UniProtKB/TrEMBL annotation:
PROSITE patterns: CYTC
Source species of the chain: Marinobacter panjinensis
Post-translation changes: Binds 1 heme c group covalently per subunit.
Record's protein name: Cytochrome c-551
Stretch forming the signal peptide: 1-23
Taxonomic lineage: Bacteria, Pseudomonadati, Pseudomonadota, Gammaproteobacteria, Pseudomonadales
Binding site for heme c: 39, 43, 87
Entry-linked SUPFAM superfamilies: Cytochrome c (SSF46626)
Length: 116
């Protein structure tokens, strides 16, 4: 009985610790990537500070079905898909790989479920 309780407690701690580490590393590393790639120069995570569309606003407007479209916007820039806001030209911002763009887009779109 004592062995079962200890095993269960240990397994619970390991699972909880792993889940917390994964959540923190996912959010923290993606936020750091957004800062490194200069996304935060124009965008904010929430609508608290009005600038270009916030990540929350983007998450509310688009769904996971739009991910490929948004990855292309991150990679190539664009205009006319959010009022008069325009992504800076590629030479005016940090280079982003397709893998990084997909990670950023998925992170942003995951914000949709956090606000619902």
């Amino acid at each position: 009985m004592k062995r079962t309780i200890v095993s269960t407690a240990l397994a619970s701690c390991l699972c909880l610790g792993s889940a917390m580490a994964l959540a923190e590393s996912h959010g923290k590393s993606t936020m750091q990537l957004a800062e490194e790639k200069q996304c935060m120069a124009c965008h904010t995570a929430s609508d608290d500070v009005p600038r270009s569309p916030s990540f929350q606003s983007i998450a509310q407007r688009y769904t996971k079905d739009d991910a490929d479209k948004l990855v292309q916007v991150v990679l190539t820039g664009g205009e006319d898909h959010w009022g008069s806001a325009k992504m800076p030209e590629m030479d005016a911002r940090a280079e982003v790989s397709e893998k990084e763009a997909r990670k950023l887009v998925n992170w942003i779109l995951d914000m949709r479920s956090e606000t619902e």
